[in-house]
Amino acid sequence: VCLQFPDSLLPDSVEVALYIDEHTSNKTYILGDTSYGSCCVDEVASKHVNADAIIHFGHACLSGTPNIPVLYVLPKKGFNIQQFIIRFEQFRTKGDILLLYDVGVSYLISKLNDSMADVLKESLVISELITSPSHNSPCCTRCKLLSGESKHSSSRFSRGFCEPDGKNFDIVIYAGTDKSMTNFLMMMKNVQFYQYTGNEGFVLMNSLSLYKQSSFLIEKVKAAQTIGILVCTLAVEHFLVAIEHVKTLCKRRQKKFYVISLGKPTPAKLANFTEVDLFVSISCPEMDFYDRKTFLQPVVGLLDVELALNENRTWDNSFSKDFKDLVQGGRDYIAPPEESPDGIGEVSLVSNRLHGVSNTPSGCLDVEIVPEKILVDKVLVTDRERVWDGLNPNLNAPDLRKPDKGRIGTAEGYTNEKDILKDNTQEEE
């Protein structure tokens, strides 16, 4: 059995491992460093010892690993149930409400459900945190589990819930502060989204800044000529399908791509790939790089690539930041057009340059002027010039020469200025 701890809990790992060895017949191993993010189950490291199971401690993204059983030991955060119920009274008559929550609050959800009055639960759907393939807790009075079905009608980011018949939720409340909140905030459109914290209460959230960030990255994807596909997971299901999907989108737009696997992405590692204009991260939804300003090149997700290179996908479609939902077989999959773009370029809103035109070996730019529009037929996009000077740094350096003699004296009269003044006086005489 492998024990996976985040860095903050590693000092307690030895005590836990010794306790398990003493009270069971299992052999335990401590995973000292995760291959990717600490929220993901490190299946790669567990294979080095042929582990039969993994016990994951701390915050988890719950992405799921189909090849090995996992037991999650989730953190327990403070949450005042009575205070939440009192503040929740203001939403009682405001329509259908969905309650989502941080993984650190999940241990109190059953107690919260029992403490709430039946009047408050009439229009409330309390999502279930899915840590195993089976769904056990009904989310509301009309839950599919109560009618004999095996799962909820909808599941997003390991939260299961049943949606209202024929319509969306009116209000969504997220209790907690983890990264899943931003994923739900972008996905839940045309609803009032509130974040609940014990100190500030219910705070109305605005997703405009997230859409602005994504729109900027979409323009970066369109303008990029060389794309690096970062493999940031080897355990999440369908990650190979996601890589092939990005390859297909790049080929349609005649963009170069490299598949890169280097463990945890850091600015120092990615800076070595100077020929790459942009990186696409194939990772769990909580490994977000939007706030990583130290990276030399932008790092985007599969959703940004879809919106940039798939002409059939728009902001009006249903989408998710989980790549499993965007690839073929996913609930939000939209197939790109069968025919490749015809080479008509567009001007980037970021760099103000023309991009999206077709490559030809002729090396010429043919512009046909048509009434009301200009069609760009052919353009040659060359590689960046690369020059290697060898091991001698002075190979192409300019020839050395003696330094020129500088001026001597003070600002009121340098020596060379006195000579010039003397020559001018003699000429006047």
TrEMBL record:
Belongs to the DPH1/DPH2 family. DPH2 subfamily. Keywords: Iron, Iron-sulfur, Metal-binding. It comes from Rhodnius prolixus. InterPro entries: DHP2, DPH1/DPH2, DPH1/DPH2_1, DPH1/DPH2_3. Its cofactor is [4Fe-4S] cluster. Gene3D superfamilies: Diphthamide synthesis DPH1/DPH2 domain 1, Diphthamide synthesis DPH1/DPH2 domain 3. Pathway: Protein modification; peptidyl-diphthamide biosynthesis. This is 2-(3-amino-3-carboxypropyl)histidine synthase subunit 2.
